[in-house]
Amino acid sequence: MNCFTTAWGEFELARFPEDPREQLRAWDASDEYLLRHLKENPAGLDGAVAVLGDRWGALSTALAEPAGSLTAITDSYLSARAVAANLARNGVDPARVDVRSTQDAPPERIDLLLVRVPKSLALLEDQLHRLAPAVHPGTVVAGTGMVTEIHTSTLQLFERILGPTRTSLAVRKARLIHTTPDGSLARPANPWPLRYRLPEGIGVLSGRQVANQAGVFCADRLDIGTRFFLQHLPDLTGARRVIDLGCGNGIVGTAAALSAPDAELLFVDESFQAVASAEETFRSNLGPDARAGFLVGDALADVPDASADVVLLNPPFHSHQATTDAIARRMFAGARRVLRQGGELRVVGNRHLGHHVTLRRLFGNCRTVAGSPKFVVLSAVRR
Q: Based on the domain organization, do 282 and 371 belong to the same domain?
């Protein structure tokens, strides 16, 4: 936990979930830059404020009191929890911030739109399209991000969807984006969600339809890591419950369901966009009555102990711009807890990450199922 100093006071902030082994701050220079700009240029702050993509609640916590009303919009369950936790930590009434997911209805009117530029250009495109109807000629639009996150394509999206756009000078490797809404702008249609059919030659998934909401990894094709994983899924004979953890668009869990029609599938991801994609992918291939659950959450925190036979996982190793194994470690520990005795966690990952070391420590065993120059598939069993 660290102290975040702003023109509106000092705030104790932490990422969610808190990990004492990680020393990552809950804000960066781009959050600081935007807040300084707003203090000097507060137009719209006393009206309806929308904050898109507030990663750990730094913007929402600092602006909850000065804003007329504030809506925080996020694709991340962890970010939503971070906003709530940081508001409570600093004694701010949680009712001051209306936290919505990217799948929820957007606000009807926005007087000040603040955008923390996301890693995914597709997610930014989709959300600007969704928010554009609430923007009026008097709306102040300000984006922020590190210089490595703001590209010509980023600015072109603001211009194409909202209006004329310019950037600020860089300060501590951060930039601001300023857009003037143009009510006469002929916006292109929102291309999201994207749907396509898988190629032949990949077993039960050959020719199957996949749905991708904006921001979900590898939206227009089957990525090579998933393709490798699909070739080495476990035998699911007799499995009663299978969990696709970090499900993304649900391809892996859908393959498991097609291979084991008697098993109940649970799709879990911290991305609202991902779980919506997984549900459409699953339903379009197995029908509306097939047994499955869809959970947006903090890995397996809300899944009961000893309730699954198999967990399938392709763990992330980035938290926004930071490289970390903390997410994978929590996923592995959660999988061990929710597996029944004899249950299996099967993991695909980049070979260099060394997940076998963590799995042996947690499970007491780990075997290599398959390997390639880039990827490895590992299996750990709950004893």
A: yes
